[in-house]
């Protein structure tokens, strides 16, 4: 059975673009969930520019990538493709041709819970791909089974179609679409705090700056030796 939802609920592009200014690591000061560290999933090449876009989700069987091409067809400029291969380690569903097709459609990044291939060609095309590993073995086009725009799981984080994906060279943030305004407030607040810390560090001595942590230790029993 193949299930395809053709459309996702769209957020305003200007609203989405605001998230490009906020690193996922700033959210890491506040959140303990919905953040994907680059451990099992890694960039195929260095992520030069932070991106933010809505998720087009795909779930495929390990050997069949026909729905990857269909998802690219359905994608709109600024989207992020999120492909769940259930941790497949051998067969790569993403490579040079899919990269060229995605770029032509205006897709900004691809995240694969499985392998990618053609890593040098992906780098030459300056396209952002996250994958578990690289492999010379590739999927084929069969049309066995799969889904487009259904909930998927990437490294233990649930991604729903239309969720907002923010990524850079440090990691990935998954923002539930219906909570995007709340997340933007958190992000702006943490970004302002981070900038304030930098200003404080530049305006006082390093010793005085480091003393700021002392208040967190005042009520602790410390064994000095």
UniProtKB/TrEMBL annotation:
The lineage of its organism: Bacteria, Bacillati, Bacillota, Bacilli, Bacillales. Keywords: Magnesium, Metal-binding, Methyltransferase, Transferase. This is Putative 4-hydroxy-4-methyl-2-oxoglutarate aldolase. Belongs to the class II aldolase/RraA-like family. GO terms for biological process: methylation. Its cofactor is a divalent metal cation; Mg(2+). Catalyzes the aldol cleavage of 4-hydroxy-4-methyl-2-oxoglutarate (HMG) into 2 molecules of pyruvate. Also contains a secondary oxaloacetate (OAA) decarboxylase activity due to the common pyruvate enolate transition state formed following C-C bond cleavage in the retro-aldol and decarboxylation reactions. It catalyses: 4-hydroxy-4-methyl-2-oxoglutarate = 2 pyruvate; oxaloacetate + H(+) = pyruvate + CO2. It comes from the Bacteria. Its EC number is 4.1.1.112, 4.1.3.17. One of its GO terms (molecular function) is 4-hydroxy-4-methyl-2-oxoglutarate aldolase activity. The keyword Metal-binding applies. The keyword Methyltransferase applies. Mg(2+) binds at residue 118. Homotrimer.
